[in-house]
Amino acid sequence: MNKKTIEIITELDIITARKLGRNEAKRIGFDKVDQARITTAIGELAKNIFFYAQTGKIVIEETIREGIKGIAITSIDKGQGIGDVQKVLEGEHSPTSTGAGLPAVKRLVDSINIESEIGKGTIVKIVKWLS
Amino acid sequence: MQQLKKLYKQILSDYICNQNESDLYIGQNLIKQMIQKNVSPEDVISIHKQALEEFYGELPETVIHAYDFLIEVMVHYGLKVKEHQSLLVKQEEMRIEMDIAAQIQNQLLENEVPKTKCTDIGMISVPLRKMNGDYVHFKYDSANYLGVAVTDVVGKGVPAALCMSMVKYGLDTLEYANSNPSYVLEVLNQLIEKSVDDSMFVSLFYARYNLHSNIFTWSSAGHEPSLYYNAAEHTFYDLEAKGLLLGILPEVKYSQQELELKENDFIIIMTDGVTDFRKNEGFDAREKIKELALSFQHLNAQEMCNTIYQELLKLQDFKLYDDFTVVIIKKNKLF
What we know:
The structure holds 2 protein chains of 2 kinds. By secondary structure, chain A is of the alpha+beta class. Chain A has a single domain, classed as Histidine kinase-like ATPase, C-terminal domain (Heat Shock Protein 90, 2-Layer Sandwich). In chain A, about 40% of the residues lie in helices and about 30% in strands. Chain A has a 5-stranded antiparallel sheet with strand order 1-2-3-5-4, with helices on one face. The longest helix of chain A has 22 residues. Chain A is globular. The relative contact order of chain A is 0.19. Chain B is α+β, with helices and mostly antiparallel strands. Chain B folds into 2 domains: about 90 residues, Orthogonal Bundle (Methyltransferase, Methionine Synthase (B12-binding Domains), Chain A, domain 1); about 220 residues, 4-Layer Sandwich (Phosphatase 2c, domain 1). Chain B has a 5-stranded antiparallel sheet with strand order 1-10-9-6-7. A 5-stranded antiparallel sheet of chain B has the order 2-3-4-5-8. In chain B, a hairpin with a 4-residue loop joins strand 6 and strand 7. The longest helix of chain B has about 50 residues. Chain B starts with a helix and ends with a strand. Chains A and B meet through helix 2 and helix 4 of A and helix 3 and helix 4 of B.
């Protein structure tokens, strides 16, 4: 399955990531509203990288589970990391860390998974299924 | 969801035909149900767009783009609204915690104005925010001496309030009302210098009043000068001192001075929040306070405090800019 990777270095890369994500969502078969949600989620992840971790990448791929297609987006950065993932998802983060905006992203997709280590970076994986 | 979609389309088509007020009202009720079912704003727009496509066939391409734009923007709008709501919830939690903290502070710092035979004492202390950075402490041994400290932590709110608790316990450990004011300042200075953050300073005016000899002895650490009214001379004097703020340097020495209070004399001790307003307009608050004190000197000390507060509040358009504290000590006529 084809996998698209976008390095986030400049602000323009945020738009590139959104564009690729939207095309992929459309190709998989998501409707307009879900396309908008997926794109917004990708935008939030890319913004987190750009503003708080300086560099990192977004990986977009199709995924399938029990015959249902979906889209998986992974954001990988080498930023400062998140101390308490649970708190971040409940919205109790400092607004200046890579955890900003994650509670919002969580509302847009079906699942979110965060792995993070202080000082080393953060990996966020989100999935949305075709309903 | 399918049900709600169908209802929406029905109500919309009715409205397009008749523009009836009742259809709008039904539409409002439908939105209520949609919110309960967690239907997001972008879903509503999508339903609306689909309905139009059903009614009129293919919409013009420009209109379709416009709807897609609206859907996109509303996804983000919905997110931001939710973020905002969760901030409001958090703010409310903090407000409740602050209320509790302020209550605890009030209990900790509560200090009754002593009643003595030969003096009349009044006090008012109003915090700008919930927690007070000013504090008034009385010591009274009922026989000989009355001690009074008026303090102001440089800074406001919670940090100032936490620092103030320590000043209070410093004053408590000094126990006796007959301590020399200069000694009180030296001890407190050491305590604050050692234990409080470098950015925290405290100004303090300490006075000891000998109830037999009527000698008023005072010392000040960087505090707003108090006012002394000599009734026989009809004159106000500033009780000025060059003492350094508490907490800047260790081992600071403070000097003390004294005066004798006679019948109808009074002393006004205040914090800089009382005098520090409208300075840029060239307004002289100290002169105003003197004027007010003179015209209300027939009142008792507490009424004088209240009146001065009310009058100064009026001059600031009923909006404090700093914690506000005034203590008035009047020599009673009876003795």
